[in-house]
Amino acid sequence: MTFNDLKLSAPLLKAVSEAGYETPSPIQASAIPPVLAGRDLMGCAQTGTGKTAAFALPMLDRLTANPAKKKGAVRALILTPTRELALQIGESFEMYGKYLSLRSTVIFGGVGQAPQVAAIKRGVDILIACPGRLNDLVGQGLIDLGSIEIFVLDEADRMLDMGFFKDVTRIIDKVKNRKNLGLFSATISQEVMTVSWMYQRDEVEITVEPKQEDRPDIDQFSITCT
Ligand code: AMP
Q: Which atom of ligand 1 is nearest to the CA of 46?
């Protein structure tokens, strides 16, 4: 399979080719068509499998195909547990969207909020956020989640393990006009299942096994006691 077969638009194909990607990774080949079609998705995949492009490429394509109804409104949201991941995802969006006119920004806690608020006020299509800071800014009335169409929870297991369950569900409850919810997680924990059960409908489920070299080198033994 090639990226051409996935029916992505020419500006994205050009950016992907310049990034040096020759063929879609398994998660990209499986996730891009349903996300392009607007389906909910549960992707069980670890970092390193190419999952960022799996949700970013179809998201960029859909946002470009459907122009904003409200100027400057946030139309896509990616929630991720840590500042490092948020920045990494932000860089990926810059790279994949370099030939598109969509704007993205990254928000996270532990730093002053003023520059983040200024970026949002200038208008962004795609917001990459950590849950704590996002809830803060929504609580202060500085971000409106009402125009978000596409919503992704990245590293959902880690985010929920870190005690963000309430923050996450509070945010999902406010994203009332979303057309679809993507959930990416390395493991499908009880809390991930709960969020999926509460908020996803008719989701496509995809599992990508980690590559052999990414698996921990653990020998297992069993002793039968009689
Ligand atoms: P991710 O799992 O999204 O963090 O991606 C892990 C790494 O794989 C990043 O450095 C990406 O740039 C790279 N990558 C993603 N998709 C592909 C692809 N189809 N071909 C080659 N490298 C890729």
A: 2
CA torsion, ordered 191, 196, 197, 203, to nearest 10 deg: -150
pLDDT in tens, 193-222: 999 999 999 999 999 876 655 555 667 788
53 lines ligand 1 (CB under 6 A): yes
Q: What is the pLDDT of residues 84-127, one digit of tens each?
A: 999 999 999 999 999 999 999 999 999 999 999 999 999 999 99
SS3 182: strand
Residue nearest to atom 20 of ligand 1 (CA): 21
Minimal-distance CA residue to ligand 1 atom 14: 50
Q: How far apart are CA 224 and CA 154, in angstroms?
A: 40
Q: What is the pLDDT of residues 70-79, one digit of tens each?
A: 888 999 999 9
What confidence score (pLDDT) does residue 3 get? 94
DSSP, residue by residue, 122-166 = H--SEEEE-HHHHHHHHHTT----TT--EEEE-SHHHHIIIIIHH
Query: Can you spell out the DSSP letters for 79-138?
Result: E-SSHHHHHHHHHHHHHHTTTS---EEEE-SSS-SHHHHHHHHH--SEEEE-HHHHHHHH
What distance in Å separates the CA atoms of residue 145 and residue 150, rounded to the nearest whole number? 11
Ligand 1 touching residue 48 (CB < 6 A):
yes
β partners of residue 42: 183, 205
Task: Output the pTM of the full model.
Answer: 0.91
